[in-house]
């Protein structure tokens, strides 16, 4: 008999989409989606294709141990007991020999569950005595830093349904069609457009969102956006288009910013002509958009996260927020604080599932120089930056890192594939004493593990999720039994706790922990119906607006910054005394810009966008999706022609860091001089070390931005027709 069970997709595109999973004899046979009511949470093609991932030949069935050379992917099946005993004894050996900081726990995205993610392992290792880990959220450290510095909080974006109230929407490096950024963002963009709202896209690519919604596409050289924002500020200042009362009432430090923009501070007026030379955007286009933004109220300046994932990406996000304040768009319907898709205003209320506790290794270290007070444990000096993991492993204390790292524990991460400079990553992984990966698939990283622990798919366990941007809770319901011997992250941590002699890890079942989370929610009235329906929407009388109270009644509602106002000049940042993290936003050129001498050798700038039909490396090779969109390098027709490349040709893409062999997609939907390989192609080296899987990170720089943005571009490369 076929059953249809409703659950919610787990992927970290923040979709929270509804899946109606058909199950027959314990096997998923097909997947449909939401079709009820006016506001649906409809799944994308990935959500519909989960079945091909669930039962993929790459899925791990049993615990395994490495037998061949590390990285060659040769493993034999072992029992769970042997696997867990080995992991526990390696943890203990590493601790005895080198101390707790030698254990590096790494976990990234993948899944938006509240319970089954890194939490069980974090809690276990904290109780055990501590571990090293990273800081610098791969996704959005730039906007995170900027929002904390400027507004004192990250709950700083209007609810996404408020977009329908805007009269002008600027999608600045934002492709809400490909990347979702909450399921119904597309619906609200469509509503806005139908209402006559003008929509502009500023992006090196003519994105899906631009093609669907925008009236104007402004191509811009990657990594130069701050210069364009400063020139827009210049026009607004010199043409007296400022919301002066707003600036006077709600902000501090505008005059310092103004002096910099006008060139009083450094002798360089940030004119549109100055910005044109840097950004490639004509001066009149910059001036035109500045006037339009300053005079159209309300206007929503909506950045994605990619322009912030460049060197000095924090400056981009800080500058966007300053522009939003200059135009008085903060705290009003249809406006935007400039925080864009990060947020939401709506504070989700859920009780704790499993408290992670304080990590003694974090607690033992003084704070980093570049940590804001509000950054919590991530501000500990024991942390290594995400972009610097390979150097930290290779160099350890001798290279100035906090510890010598010997054991890498991976949960929800395809780190080799997803971190910059894969070839350096291979060396780093080879240098470690022991690697454990809790994985579902034989990924590029899993091939390097010593022990592989197979984990459950979200459809094989219960969890709760929220989807950023709207007041929504999803119950990710178990629909089938675990695949072969797969176990959940919670079960694995509990089994290790026994072996490590930790008695207070957790005495509760999975469902009891989820019940406890729901009991702590002021929104979800009852657990059982939530579990049954799989979604709970909170009805608000109107879309939430970030900082509405602070703007409407500032005397009684200060911002949570040190000054109580929007900090255009941040004293907290000034106190860091870091020349590359100025207290007002500034344009600082990125390495591998068009002015880098390396351009002679590698003339094209590579960006590495998030794939529409994968979530990072997840769904790679799923037949339905791969057929729709094979992994390719996107190149402008003029650049292709100059190299004798035709659409569909095999090309080599290379720089000093490595080489990728891939198919070319020739188009005019990307600006000349810029190429794109979407991140997440599976690193598949051939005998000569050339990657055949289209992994962009073979080519990217493993540097962090001064205040912590994880850099995903631009990287200089050259492209040649294969066989040349
Ligand atoms: N389908 C799908 N959706 C996803 C994900 C996924 O893997 N697949 N990943 C999710 C996750 S974890 C995250 S963090 C987000 C990421 O969301 P984003 O960071 O916003 O996504 P990106 O694709 O990196 O970039 C968005 C747009 O910015 C443009 N861009 C790149 N560099 C620059 C630049 O320097 N300036 C300007 N102006 N534009 C630039 C790109 O061309 C692209 O169109 O997406 C989430 N959503
Ligand atoms: N060049 C470049 N690199 C990038 C980026 C970029 O824009 N450009 N973006 C960065 C960003 S924003 C992010 S968030 C990272 C993402 O980096 P990752 O999170 O490492 O990428 P995923 O491919 O999602 O890998 C998650 C892995 O966890 C495994 N896994 C184990 N257990 C579970 C589970 O229970 N659930 C799920 N879902 N997976 C599990 C999955 O099988 C998968 O292999 O990539 C970063 N890397
Ligand atoms: S992959 Fe993302 S957009 Fe697609 S169904 Fe899942 S949550 Fe929704
Ligand atoms: Mo991300």
Summarize the structure in words:
The chain folds into three domains: 250 residues, Rossmann fold; 228 residues, Dimethylsulfoxide Reductase, domain 2, CATH 3.40.228.10; 125 residues, Beta Barrel (Barwin-like endoglucanases). The chain contains 24 helices and 26 strands. The protein has a six-stranded mixed β-sheet with strand order 5-4-16-15-14-6, with helices on one face. A six-stranded mixed β-barrel has the order 21-25-22-24-23-26. The protein has a four-stranded parallel β-sheet with strand order 10-9-8-12. Helix 3 packs across helix 18, helix 5 packs across helix 13 and helix 11 crosses helix 12. The N and C termini lie far apart (58 Å). The chain binds ligand MGD (2 copies), iron/sulfur cluster and molybdenum atom. Molybdenum atom binds next to loops.
Give the SSE layout:
Layout: E1 2-8, E2 18-24, E3 27-33, H1 45-48, H2 50-54, E4 64-66, E5 75-77, H3 80-98, E6 103-107, H4 119-128, E7 134-135, H5 141-151, E8 168-172, H6 185-194, E9 198-202, H7 208-213, E10 216-218, H8 225-238, H9 244-250, E11 251-252, H10 254-262, H11 272-279, H12 283-295, E12 299-303, H13 313-326, H14 360-364, E13 384-385, H15 389-395, E14 407-411, H16 415-418, H17 422-431, E15 434-439, E16 451-454, E17 463-466, E18 472-476, H18 489-499, H19 510-519, H20 527-533, E19 535-537, H21 548-552, E20 566-567, H22 571-574, E21 604-607, H23 623-628, E22 632-636, H24 637-642, E23 650-655, E24 658-667, E25 674-677, E26 715-721
Parallel strand pairs: 6-14, 7-13, 8-9, 8-12, 9-10, 11-20, 14-15, 15-16, 21-25, 22-24
Antiparallel strand pairs: 1-2, 2-3, 4-5, 4-16, 17-18, 18-19, 21-26, 22-25, 23-24, 23-26
Helix pairs in contact: 3-18, 4-18, 5-13, 8-11, 8-12, 8-13, 11-12, 15-17
The chain binds ligand MGD (2 copies), iron/sulfur cluster and molybdenum atom.
């Amino acid at each position: 008999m076929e059953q249809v069970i409703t659950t919610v997709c787990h992927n970290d595109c923040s979709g929270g989409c509804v899946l109606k999973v058909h199950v027959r004899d314990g096997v998923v046979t097909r997947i449909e989606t939401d079709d009820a009511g006016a506001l649906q949470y409809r799944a994308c093609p990935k959500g519909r294709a989960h079945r091909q991932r669930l039962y993929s030949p790459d899925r791990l069935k049993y615990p395994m141990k490495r037998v061949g050379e590390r990285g060659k992917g040769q493993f034999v099946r072992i029992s769970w007991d042997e696997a867990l005993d080995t992991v526990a004894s390696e943890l203990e050996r590493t601790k005895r020999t080198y101390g707790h900081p030698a254990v590096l726990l790494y976990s990234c995205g993948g899944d938006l569950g509240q319970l089954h993610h890194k939490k069980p392992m974090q809690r276990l290792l904290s109780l055990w005595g501590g571990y090293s880990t990273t800081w610098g959220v791969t996704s959005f450290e730039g906007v995170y830093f900027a929002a904390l510095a400027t507004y004192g909080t990250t709950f700083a974006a209007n609810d996404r349904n408020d977009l329908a109230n805007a009269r002008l929407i600027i999608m600045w490096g934002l492709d809400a069609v490909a990347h979702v950024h909450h399921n119904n963002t597309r619906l609200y963009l469509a509503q806005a457009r139908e209402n006559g709202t003008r929509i502009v896209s500023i992006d090196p690519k003519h994105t899906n969102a631009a093609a669907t919604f925008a009236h104007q596409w402004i191509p811009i050289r990657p990594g130069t956006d701050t210069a364009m924002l400063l020139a827009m500020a210049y026009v607004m200042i010199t043409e007296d288009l400022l919301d002066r009362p707003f600036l006077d009432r709600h902000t501090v430090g505008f005059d310092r910013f103004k002096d910099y923009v006008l060139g009083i501070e450094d002798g360089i007026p940030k004119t549109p002509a100055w910005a044109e030379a840097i950004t490639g955007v004509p001066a009149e286009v910059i001036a035109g958009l500045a006037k339009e933004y300053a005079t159209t109220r309300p206007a929503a300046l909506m950045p994605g996260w990619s322009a912030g994932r460049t060197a000095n990406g924090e400056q981009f996000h800080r500058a966007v927020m300053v522009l939003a304040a200059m135009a008085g768009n903060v705290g009003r319907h249809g406006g935007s604080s400039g925080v864009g898709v990060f947020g939401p205003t709506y504070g989700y209320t859920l009780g704790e599932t499993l408290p992670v506790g304080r990590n003694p290794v974090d607690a033992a270290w003084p704070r980093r120089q570049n940590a804001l007070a509000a950054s919590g444990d991530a501000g500990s000096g024991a942390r290594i930056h995400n972009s610097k993991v390979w150097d930290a492993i290779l160099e350890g204390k001798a290279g100035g890192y906090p510890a010598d790292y010997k054991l890498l524990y991976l949960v929800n991460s395809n780190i080799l594939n997803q971190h910059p400079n894969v070839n350096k990553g291979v060396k780093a992984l080879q240098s470690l004493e022991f690697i454990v990966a809790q994985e579902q698939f034989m990924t590029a990283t899993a091939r390097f593990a010593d022990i592989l622990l197979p984990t459950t798919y979200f459809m094989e366990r219960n969890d709760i999720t929220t989807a950023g941007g709207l007041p929504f809770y999803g119950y990710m319901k178990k629909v089938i039994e675990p695949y072969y011997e797969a176990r959940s992250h919670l079960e694995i941590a509990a089994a290790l706790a026994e072996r490590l002699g930790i008695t207070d890890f957790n005495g509760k079942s999975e469902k009891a922990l989820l019940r406890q989370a729901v009991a702590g929610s002021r929104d979800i009235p009852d657990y059982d119906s939530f579990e049954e329906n799989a979604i709970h929407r909170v009805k608000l009388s109107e879309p939430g607006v970030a900082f509405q109270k602070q703007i409407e009644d500032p005397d009684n509602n200060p911002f949570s910054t040190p000054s109580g106002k929007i900090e255009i000049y941040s004293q907290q940042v000034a106190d860091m005394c870091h020349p590359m993290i100025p207290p007002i936003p500034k344009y600082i050129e990125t390495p591998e810009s068009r002015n880098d001498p390396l351009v002679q050798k590698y003339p094209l700038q590579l960006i590495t966008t998030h794939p529409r039909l994968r979530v990072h490396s997840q769904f790679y090779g799923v037949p339905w999706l791969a057929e729709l969109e094979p992994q390719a390098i996107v190149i402008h027709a003029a650049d292709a022609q100059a190299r004798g490349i035709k659409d569909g040709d095999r090309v080599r893409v290379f720089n000093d860091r490595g080489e990728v062999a891939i198919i070319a997609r020739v188009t005019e939907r990307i600006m000349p001089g810029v190429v794109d390989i979407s991140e997440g192609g599976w690193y598949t080296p051939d005998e000569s070390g050339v990657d055949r899987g289209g992994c962009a990170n073979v080519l990217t720089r493993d540097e962090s931005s001064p205040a912590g943005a994880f850099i995903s571009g631009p990287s200089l490369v050259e492209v040649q027709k294969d066989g040349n």
